[in-house]
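mind reviewing this fold:
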Amino acid sequence: MQEIPGPFDPLPEGRQPALTGAAAQLHTRIAFVVETARRLHQYGTAAPRLESAIDLLSARLGLCAQVWSSPTAIIISFADGDGDKDRLAEVTQVIRLSPGDTDLRHLVEVNEIADNVIAGRLNIEEGFHLLHTLSDRIGRRGRALEVLCYGIVSAALAALLHGAWADMLAAGGIGLIVGVLASISAGRPRLRNSLEAICALLATFLATIISLYVTPLTLKSVVLASVIVLLPGAPLTTAVRELSTQHLVSGVARLAGAVATLIKLAFGTIVANELCKLLQLSPPAPSQPPIPRWATWVALVFASYAFAVLFRAARRDFPLVMVAAALGYSITYFAGSYFSPEFGVFLAGLTMGALSNLYARRTNRPGALVREPGIILLVPGSIGFLTVSAIAGGDVFLGINTAVSLMAILVSLVAGLLFGDLIVAPRRSL
């Protein structure tokens, strides 16, 4: 069976760009490429993959494009030609954007629209209209489910951190409050800018109150689990991967944004601790035993489902996303038990990177459906939070130790993903 290349695949040697694109007006083709780039950025595509995808799509539409992507902007220069990079740009587009969030359903839709345009099933005007009218709004039911999943992820992480039943319940309840605040802040820019600090403050204060007046809790684990969705583990990993592939501007900018988020979270925790000291709230030490081992695997199933919702995967992709998330964690857990935690992360990153490329080659769909959920429980956002909190709290030596652990895990994960690309070459850019 002949393999049909997609819009984000390299052209076979000797092949010309699709006639559909070549026959269209220059400004129409440019508008379609620019809208595709904007949507890919909006739905969480990293700079290396976005630039490669737009280069290949432009070539299939008979354009020569020079693309530069960062977390907050895209610059694309176009020339009408056969891919000669030395030609002078005829049109340059500058797009100012906010950092994107992972949205798997829309990422698949963008991929399918581009596929249909290249295959001639849609003309470029129709493709542009479909891209432009993609709706990012979710109904009340969808928003409520996302808020619920904040609580599910928080409770599940408390279980994966070997907390007690009380820790799970407390983390789940506080996680729901964090989800409500995150939902409210979506349409309020001023609240959104301080969301992480407010949530960390509330999580720490509420956990202290519960531990003092209801039941003793493992405070660090509960606070960490409660704000887990806000931790910038994925941006940290993406930043290091961009730096490793020489996308220096994007990598440094994304790394700075992740550190700023960690600082806001750490600041909220410190303020809450000082407030508790002022009010003389000193909770007792936790004394309850951790949950049984079987409960952690049940929690992993719930966490996988919640991440499928938070990644906004299509319903038909839920089983795939859940299996990928559970598989990534399981490989890390068992390999880390036999070897070292860092090697476990490396092996999981390698496996999920290779499987995502294999999935993309076999199905002609984005490998992100496997890759992003597959590494979500491996990213070291929690260690970054502990690092910044320790340094901000004056414990510099502890902060340095956790920073070393952070770098070891980041390097292991990124190296695993890069080796995965070597084992199974990524035919598709996404």
About this structure: Confidence is low (pLDDT under 50) at residues 15-23. Residues 19-132 form one domain. The first strand starts at residue 63 and ends at 70.
